[in-house]
Amino acid sequence: MTWTEDGFYLDRMVISLTPEQEARLVQAAQADGISPESLVADIVLEALDFEDEEEEAVLVERRRQFD
């Protein structure tokens, strides 16, 4: 994952949000009891196509630590 001023790259995909979109997304997640960190982790886990089950397990465990 590579962070840029315009968003971040996940493999060959770019996720880019305006500050307003980001704020709405975070507010909606927090209203559902989801922390911003967990929200990002969920997006990353959904966006990545894991071929390595061990790598996926490590990332899933890290995501649980945010809860």
From TrEMBL:
This is Ribbon-helix-helix protein, copG family.
